[in-house]
């Protein structure tokens, strides 16, 4: 959310021709397109005037020789964030029934020279002044460093589709705190109200495109709600649009002074509503700690500003601790953010943070775990970007224990050390839309893992997400994009994109709007060769593989549930029971606890011989550093099938070749704490 300032440019006088175009765009509805032919990818009618697409040739259809779909994946975009944050922070609309002049115009308060573009002051590091005219001149926006203007006009998305993109995740987004403190708004700051509106408008945009092609179902912009439907759409050569959610307080699950403001019933109701709207992926926390999970921090001045926002929303600041593993959250730093800090109550100050304590103390809460498991039941995919490493680690533990593949990292916000665990689960990873050099370097770093797991790659443009996009490499840069160029599949020719009086060139303008995604991919090919682009082109198939596996997931039967159990010892308490049966009662709030010595065991009698291939151990704080999982047919002769000397607590999953056994024993050899061993739940599964 940072950027460099740009000089103020004098507002251009509107020509007579421009005025006529403005009037026509408002007065005329969809009319036959002069350029339209009989090709299925050309609309029979398009608003006039409108943006050009500047791509010729037939979009590819069908599958490859292996029966796989092809195409690029944008796993993180915000088509309708102009409706978020009170409706006046992102200026311009993705489409309008009144035409392009209505869709691509600045916020009212930005006229005549952008002096009241307050958010530009904050995000762009300058004075916010700019020529507010969009159509038809587009002198100052959209631009790669203009963070508050519409970048997702439908015709620009159409160009990306024509250039080879086949999956677009439209993350419905807002933030109630930003809305409440921003000066300009024209609607409620309630987050779920905004999410509902953005979902509706996604379907409205589909209908808008359909009308250009002759009626329902005929357009290229297809909202999909299951992987089979998405596969069919992509095979037809069209764009599969999946809805996700990225918001700070889903279902109203904020926390105030560490007290949750939602319940399990709220979570169930919220998940059911989102699923009914068509949402299939979501974040559980974003920017602010909430009642579900702690966040991965922002850094620098922006981090301080967001920390102020967290205090204003929750009454608490971020709290840090030393990390216990190789993963870490982003460093907060102690940068000043005067404009934000002025909003704090008198005498209130943002705390300072130690450089050697970089992890959020907040992980996944009990309510958060309930939400995670609720998403699993509904076959939804969980975004782990923005989650603290403590929360992410618990989520990955849960998914590994259940063999659930539905995990996404869509725009470079997870710790990179999680990469193989995500791929091992069957999840999908996309990188933020960095400049070509940086994007290629990161893609090469993880290439061996993609080869190992046989997966494709994605990008997350995060357009309309106030993040900043690749700047121009320069007209004289080596290996610059040469126009026109062929699409990755070789079937289309892509030239410079023109809207109104403005023509964009990636070399000199950077990634100014969504229509330049194909140009950016060509830049990657020119700079880094074909390998990265080929991995990106396999993205659609990999994304659908993750989605389909999530939909088809079935929780395995827990053979240990209600079984006869025994233990070497059980801790005595006057107030509660820590007897062995408490770890197989299905309640994660009860537990078995041993005496406080090393050599202890916990034994399960399955009642009859069963195939055992997976054992899950949900440790309380008193965990085993060293332990074995043993199987036996008779309860006397034991065979070790799993062991570790590096246990760190949490939720462990022991996997091994399926083996017939009636008895399962967890044998603790060395404690990880000064207490005994303590297990909330033990699961035994056939695979």
Automatic annotation (TrEMBL):
PROSITE patterns: FA58C_3. Residues 546-687 form the F5/8 type C domain. InterPro entries: FA58C, Galactose-bd-like_sf, Metal_Hydrolase. It comes from the Bacteria. Residues 36-62 are annotated as: Disordered. Keywords: Signal. Residues 1-35 form the signal peptide. SUPFAM superfamilies: Galactose-binding domain-like, Metallo-dependent hydrolases. Pfam families: F5_F8_type_C. This is F5/8 type C domain-containing protein.
